[in-house]
Design a protein that fits this description.
alpha/beta
Protein backbone atom coordinates (compact mmCIF):
# COMPACT_ATOMS: atom_id res chain seq x y z
CA UNK A 1 0.00 0.00 0.00
CA UNK A 2 1.51 3.32 -1.03
CA UNK A 3 1.75 5.85 1.75
CA UNK A 4 1.94 9.16 -0.05
CA UNK A 5 1.59 11.53 2.86
CA UNK A 6 1.93 10.88 6.54
CA UNK A 7 1.86 13.99 8.66
CA UNK A 8 0.82 15.14 12.07
CA UNK A 9 -1.73 17.90 11.73
CA UNK A 10 -2.98 20.08 14.55
CA UNK A 11 -5.42 17.57 16.03
CA UNK A 12 -4.87 14.34 14.14
CA UNK A 13 -2.59 12.08 12.13
CA UNK A 14 -3.23 12.38 8.38
CA UNK A 15 -2.37 9.49 6.08
CA UNK A 16 -3.06 9.60 2.34
CA UNK A 17 -2.87 6.50 0.19
CA UNK A 18 -3.03 6.28 -3.59
CA UNK A 19 -2.81 3.68 -6.30
CA UNK A 20 -4.41 0.49 -7.44
CA UNK A 21 -5.05 -2.59 -5.35
CA UNK A 22 -5.12 -5.67 -7.56
CA UNK A 23 -5.61 -8.34 -4.92
CA UNK A 24 -7.57 -8.60 -1.68
CA UNK A 25 -4.33 -9.63 0.05
CA UNK A 26 -2.94 -6.16 -0.68
CA UNK A 27 -5.80 -4.66 1.31
CA UNK A 28 -5.12 -6.97 4.25
CA UNK A 29 -1.38 -6.25 4.18
CA UNK A 30 -2.09 -2.53 3.99
CA UNK A 31 -4.35 -2.70 7.05
CA UNK A 32 -1.54 -4.33 9.01
CA UNK A 33 0.84 -1.56 7.98
CA UNK A 34 -1.69 1.12 8.89
CA UNK A 35 -2.30 -0.52 12.26
CA UNK A 36 1.40 -0.40 13.07
CA UNK A 37 1.60 3.22 11.96
CA UNK A 38 -1.49 4.31 13.92
CA UNK A 39 -0.60 2.41 17.08
CA UNK A 40 2.90 3.84 16.99
CA UNK A 41 1.52 7.38 16.99
CA UNK A 42 0.32 9.20 20.08
CA UNK A 43 -2.61 10.88 18.34
CA UNK A 44 -6.03 9.50 19.22
CA UNK A 45 -7.51 10.85 15.96
CA UNK A 46 -6.56 9.53 12.53
CA UNK A 47 -7.75 10.58 9.10
CA UNK A 48 -7.13 7.92 6.44
CA UNK A 49 -7.55 9.34 2.95
CA UNK A 50 -8.26 6.51 0.49
CA UNK A 51 -10.00 8.79 -2.02
CA UNK A 52 -7.40 8.02 -4.73
CA UNK A 53 -7.31 4.26 -4.20
CA UNK A 54 -8.86 2.06 -6.86
CA UNK A 55 -9.77 -1.59 -6.33
CA UNK A 56 -9.06 -3.71 -9.40
CA UNK A 57 -10.53 -6.93 -8.11
CA UNK A 58 -13.97 -8.31 -7.38
CA UNK A 59 -14.94 -9.01 -3.82
CA UNK A 60 -17.95 -10.21 -1.91
CA UNK A 61 -19.65 -8.38 0.94
CA UNK A 62 -18.34 -11.15 3.20
CA UNK A 63 -14.83 -9.85 2.45
CA UNK A 64 -15.73 -6.73 4.43
CA UNK A 65 -16.05 -8.92 7.54
CA UNK A 66 -12.57 -10.28 6.92
CA UNK A 67 -11.21 -6.73 6.58
CA UNK A 68 -12.98 -5.83 9.80
CA UNK A 69 -11.39 -8.73 11.68
CA UNK A 70 -7.91 -7.70 10.54
CA UNK A 71 -8.66 -4.03 11.28
CA UNK A 72 -9.96 -4.87 14.74
CA UNK A 73 -6.89 -6.98 15.56
CA UNK A 74 -4.42 -4.42 14.25
CA UNK A 75 -5.76 -1.12 15.55
CA UNK A 76 -6.15 0.12 19.10
CA UNK A 77 -9.92 0.55 19.70
CA UNK A 78 -9.36 3.83 21.53
CA UNK A 79 -8.34 5.48 18.24
CA UNK A 80 -10.90 7.61 16.42
CA UNK A 81 -10.59 6.87 12.71
CA UNK A 82 -12.12 8.79 9.87
CA UNK A 83 -12.00 7.34 6.35
CA UNK A 84 -12.24 9.34 3.15
CA UNK A 85 -13.01 7.05 0.24
CA UNK A 86 -13.81 7.12 -3.44
CA UNK A 87 -17.55 7.60 -3.95
CA UNK A 88 -17.67 4.32 -5.91
CA UNK A 89 -17.05 2.43 -2.66
CA UNK A 90 -19.32 4.44 -0.36
CA UNK A 91 -21.93 1.73 0.14
CA UNK A 92 -19.30 -0.79 1.23
CA UNK A 93 -17.53 1.87 3.29
CA UNK A 94 -20.74 2.57 5.17
CA UNK A 95 -21.19 -1.14 5.84
CA UNK A 96 -17.63 -1.36 7.17
CA UNK A 97 -18.18 1.64 9.47
CA UNK A 98 -21.52 0.28 10.67
CA UNK A 99 -19.81 -2.97 11.65
CA UNK A 100 -17.00 -1.05 13.37
CA UNK A 101 -19.53 0.94 15.39
CA UNK A 102 -21.36 -2.24 16.37
CA UNK A 103 -18.06 -3.39 17.88
CA UNK A 104 -17.60 -0.19 19.88
CA UNK A 105 -15.24 1.69 17.58
CA UNK A 106 -15.62 5.40 16.92
CA UNK A 107 -15.18 5.60 13.14
CA UNK A 108 -16.84 7.44 10.29
CA UNK A 109 -16.66 7.48 6.48
CA UNK A 110 -16.87 10.39 4.03
CA UNK A 111 -16.24 11.11 0.36
CA UNK A 112 -15.23 14.71 1.14
CA UNK A 113 -11.96 15.50 2.88
CA UNK A 114 -13.39 18.77 4.18
CA UNK A 115 -16.37 17.03 5.80
CA UNK A 116 -14.09 14.42 7.33
CA UNK A 117 -11.85 17.10 8.83
CA UNK A 118 -14.87 18.94 10.25
CA UNK A 119 -16.12 15.70 11.84
CA UNK A 120 -12.75 14.98 13.45
CA UNK A 121 -12.43 18.55 14.74
CA UNK A 122 -15.92 18.36 16.27
CA UNK A 123 -14.85 15.57 18.62
Amino acid sequence: MSLVIQEMRKDYLYVKLVGNRNFFAEMLRGLCQLGALANGNSSKKILLDYSEVELNFSYYKSSIFRLLNVYENQLDNSKIVCLVINENYLEDGKLFISLCKSRGMNNEVFVSLKEAELWLKSL
